[in-house]
Amino acid sequence: MERREPPTERETTPGETPPGETPPGETPWADPVLEKVVQLQRTTKVAFASVAMSPLAYIPEAVDFTRRWKQLPFLQGHHASTGAIRALVEFQDAGAAATPELKPHPSRARAMRALKGLRGPLDEVQGAKILELYGVRRPAEATVADPARAAAAGNEIGFPVAVKALAPELPHKAKLGGVRLDLRNAVEVEVAAAEVLQAATRAGAARPKVLVQEMATGAEVLVGAVIDDRFGACITVRPGGALAEAGDAVFVACPLTPKQAQSYVDSQAERCGLDERRHDLKAMAKAVESIARAAHDLGGRLTSLEANPLLVGAKGAVAVDALAEARPE
């Protein structure tokens, strides 16, 4: 078998520069470029980075070269580089997204009293009470015990009205036949009230009542907060009504400043079918801020708080349904 000698380093001819070294008296081609970049970085306050796409960027000579330019970050490879740049951009916005330190809402004590003795799912009126204390608008409404009183309430509120079964056992009453909409006279209200009470009884409600509510119009949006034992209160905005359970949910931490709430609503408006020319996004942002504040303040007593739907119109936003669940005391 032929014996092979181990490879030796390539010999250089007189005057030839060894590989990886700069010829005497010459400047590496990148130096003038990087000097200009450093100058621009100082004068413009813009962050610059050098992205290397070649395997040669990993050789010892290249590593030594980057160490001489400590003013600039040298990133290796397109995937890692774009990830690093994205992290930098997101970090610049971190201050604006930071959870603010806020004093308890003036209505917190009243809300805590309203929750006293409650546990598990609340009925719509109980949940709505929390929303109203924190500034979320509700339609004109009345709670009554029987169909005759429901008809009288409809006359007092003014038609058209909605009639709903009211019981903590029915958080999703529409699916169980517990909601009638757009009722135009007292007879329709009385008939509807009897029907929703029967539906509530069939669904297992122990002592159902009737909620008579002024009709409202607008785009349906779900605004819901959950209070996690580890992460605290978080809030989401999604399309409401039949689309409430479709697609992903984007949660943000509570509470929110008015500016943060508006920014969040603006970012979610399109996926919720909202247009600032036709829908009052400022009123919606105010409702989001209020629900986020309530979830943060009452996290020790609530596990969830929701307006679904929140109707967003050309002027104003109103919560026509409210869901909440209380923790045991």
Task: Briefly characterize the structure.
Helices cover 36% and strands 21% of the residues. By secondary structure, the chain is an alpha+beta fold. Strands 3, 8, 9, 10, 11, 12 and 13 form a seven-stranded antiparallel sheet that branches.
Structural class based on helices, strands and sheet pairing = alpha+beta
Low-confidence runs (pLDDT<50, min 5 residues)? none
Written as H for each helix and E for each strand, in order along the chain, the element string is HEHEHHHEHEHEEHEEEEHHEEE
User: What is the percent of helical residues?
Assistant: 25-40%
What do the pLDDT scores average to? Answer: 87
Give the total of beta strands. 13
Walk me through what this model shows.
- This protein is of the alpha+beta class.
- It has 3 domains: 30-93, no CATH class; 140-215, ATP-grasp fold, A domain (Dna Ligase, domain 1, 2-Layer Sandwich); 219-326, D-amino Acid Aminotransferase, Chain A, domain 1 (2-Layer Sandwich), CATH 3.30.470.
- The protein is 36% helix and 21% strand.
- It has helices at 30-44, 60-68, 78-92, 94-97, 108-115, 124-133, 147-157, 186-202, 258-268, 281-297, and strands at 50-52, 74-76, 120-121, 141-144, 161-166, 179-183, 209-214, 219-228, 232-239, 251-253, 302-312, 317-319, 322-326.
- Strands 3, 8, 9, 10, 11, 12 and 13 form a 7-stranded antiparallel β-sheet that branches. It has a 4-stranded antiparallel β-sheet with strand order 4-7-5-6, covered by helices on one side. A two-stranded parallel sheet has the order 1-2.
- Helix 5 (108-115) packs antiparallel against helix 6.
- The longest helix has 17 residues, at 186-202.
- The protein starts with 29 loop residues before the first helix and ends with a strand.
- The mean pLDDT is 87.
